[in-house]
Amino acid sequence: MKQVLVDVRPWNKELAITALESGADGIVTDSAAPVRELGRITTIAPDGDLVLGKDIVEIIIKSTEDQDKAMETAKRMPVIVHTPDWTVIPLENLVAVADSVIAVVKNLHEAELALGILEKGVSGVLLQTEDPAVIRDVAKAVQGHGCRQDLIPLTITAVTPAGMGDRVCVDTCSLMTDGEGMLVGNTSSGFFLVHAETLENPYVAPRPFRVNAGAVHAYLKLADGKTAYLADLKAGDRVMVNGAKGSCREATVGRVKIEQRPLLLIEAEHKGAEVTIILQNAETIRLAKPDGSAISVAALNPGDVVLGALDTAGRHFGMAVNETILEK
């Protein structure tokens, strides 16, 4: 995910508070002490969590020599790049060779431009402004930028009882809406969009913060391309919430509930690729259809079409690896 940092040099308490309340990833400041009195956030300062000049370098690009220095440094460590006349070319050159480029911006327009450079975009922005409203706008834009997951139609081929087992409810600190859920699958090569519990039900009240995600062994796809076992999730972890139209955003796990329940094995295919998942056998458990509506696993039949995603098989500690691994 992209990062948004806020520059509060010289010290500006109002801007620091706004950065905290807006969910900024860090604050650049002359001293970390006053920031720490306000709350917990990464500080970039001589006495901060990250030390300027040691953990991250700040470079002003005014010449080709400055650009060359920034390009060489960015290969080793994160670089904050100032382009005083807001020229895009130096940023393009940096983004082409490095993944840790943070562009200094002054408004939402500059932030959006930097985030879209060479499609890949910078890894983050450092916002320099005296307007708290600009901080809120840029933070919102950055937090929703660069996270997209293209979804594909999966055709159901079989739905069969799978006995009893432990299933996981992922309760987040965010409210989800109709059409949103999480990508979960039995293997790291294929996922179903498991719908959040946003719908009314005669027997159970909606739980729009919850996804009844599947059995403990299943993979959950994260925003950074990694996966996590459902059984390993805990309070404070960051997970990805997906929308039926391809949008995605991060959410914080507030609680995980693991309980023994009756299960269903759901099998599907997409152009010959097989995708499977084991979910709780209950009418409140739903998958997402291509139009964004939800269908209960209790009503699911061969031939029905739901949303999902395919990925490269083979994981090591959640990261994709280039080796021969057979999952079935």
From TrEMBL:
Protein keywords: Amino-acid biosynthesis, Aromatic amino acid biosynthesis, NAD, Oxidoreductase
Domain 3-dehydroquinate synthase N-terminal: 1-141
GO biological process assignments: amino acid biosynthetic process; aromatic amino acid family biosynthetic process
InterPro entries xrefs: DHQS, DHQS/DOIS_N, DHQS_C
EC number: 1.4.1.24
GO terms, molecular function: 3-dehydroquinate synthase activity; dehydroquinate synthase activity; NAD binding
Protein family: Belongs to the archaeal-type DHQ synthase family.
Role of this protein: Catalyzes the oxidative deamination and cyclization of 2-amino-3,7-dideoxy-D-threo-hept-6-ulosonic acid (ADH) to yield 3-dehydroquinate (DHQ), which is fed into the canonical shikimic pathway of aromatic amino acid biosynthesis.
Listed name of the protein: 3-dehydroquinate synthase
